[in-house]
Design a protein that fits this description.
mainly alpha; 2 domains; 18 helices; globular
Length: 347
């Protein structure tokens, strides 16, 4: 029905909705996109053309995109775009190889090469050994632009995968926050390291996330760090209990952040998907429904891919449960997570 209604002129839609309002209260799922209209990991308007061009074998659009993020110091965008482009290059690498042949010292190519090398090494049983060979690439990326925190986020992920000691990791962390004290990617990488180093240490993760969020500006993505800690706790099933008030406070902080972004926008979609799941698990269904409406058609692999091999299907199942009042599906067959095959960008 939603898909058909979208094709009707506005005055017809308004008339029909008025008649419906007089006869019955709207279903909780009203004004949500139909299942077949929901898409997974839709790129924003800047990344989309770069991926399309790369799919056709051209690297120039991706190179221009990363160059602009560097020149404008758009570090959050740069981090996300590098990660998405590296994931794309894993399966469609012709454009990347052409770029490397044309401009091997391009600082943006060097950064992408470091991210791609970590991605390639991560699934291997010999991950730690392979990651040691990647270190020179990460060093070169860090030296390309001393302002850029993204190489340091890659270095933090690299250290986690290589099972580096706490002292070395702490040195990387200090270098990262000197460049960008509130860079979301570096904070997420540090939280992941903490979670894996002390499995079940959810209170410590919450302490770290809460301190970071309290110190960050209200519009910083770091405000979503506590809700990531809440997600890890709700899906882990080990460690000491975290008080309900702390889980609610994390969700409330993320709700305030979500409200700062436009509705149905791909950029904050991952945070909203994560928040919707946490709210559903906390049985805050009205709040979860608000986030589902803000999400619109933009489902994201995280967190659903952490819970199931079918992330889009899991999102739709939880969405239906929120709308119908049924039990929230917790997990299917996890496609990643704490096991050694986990993706470097898992929670």
């Amino acid at each position: 029905m939603v898909g058909t209604m979208a094709l009707l002129p506005p005055f017809i839609r308004a008339s029909r909705f008025s008649r419906m309002a007089r006869t019955a209260a709207p279903h909780p799922g009203a004004w949500l996109p139909a299942d077949d209209e929901v898409l997974l990991d839709v790129p924003d308007d800047r990344l989309g053309p770069a991926l399309v061009a790369a799919g056709r074998g051209g690297y120039e659009t991706a190179a221009e995109l990363l160059r602009r993020t560097r020149e404008r110091a758009e570090w959050e965008y740069r981090d996300r775009y590098v990660t998405r482009l590296a994931s794309f290059a894993l399966s469609r690498g012709e454009w990347f190889e052409e770029w490397r042949a044309a401009a091997p010292r391009d600082p943006d190519l060097v950064l992408l090469s470091a991210q791609l090398a970590v991605e390639r090494a991560w699934p291997s049983p010999a991950r730690a050994e392979l990651l040691r060979e990647v270190s020179p690439l990460i060093t070169a990326a860090a030296q390309s632009d001393h302002r850029d925190p993204v190489p340091w986020r890659i270095a933090l992920d690299h250290a986690r995968g290589a099972r580096a000691g706490h002292k070395y990791f702490g040195e990387l962390w200090e270098a990262a926050v000197r460049r960008a004290p509130h860079h979301y990617g570096c904070h997420v990488a540090a939280k992941r390291y903490l979670a894996e180093s002390w499995h079940g240490s959810h209170r410590e993760c919450f302490d770290f996330a809460d301190r970071a969020a309290q110190d960050a500006p209200a519009d910083s993505l770091v405000q979503a760090l506590p809700v990531r800690a809440a997600f890890a706790y709700l899906t882990d099933g080990c460690g000491p209990e975290v008080p309900r008030e702390r889980l609610d406070a994390a969700a409330d902080r993320a709700i305030a952040l979500s409200a700062r972004f436009p509705s149905m926008d791909p950029w904050p979609a991952e945070i909203r998907n994560l928040l919707a799941y946490v709210l559903a698990r906390l049985d805050r269904r009205d709040d979860a429904l608000v986030q589902l409406r803000l999400i619109g058609p933009y489902a994201t692999s995280f967190p659903w891919g952490r819970l199931s091999d079918d992330p889009l299907g899991h999102f739709l199942a939880v969405r239906e449960a929120v709308c119908s009042g049924g039990p929230v599906q917790r997990a299917g067959h996890p496609g990643n997570g704490h096991d050694d095959r986990a993706h470097p960008d898992d929670h």
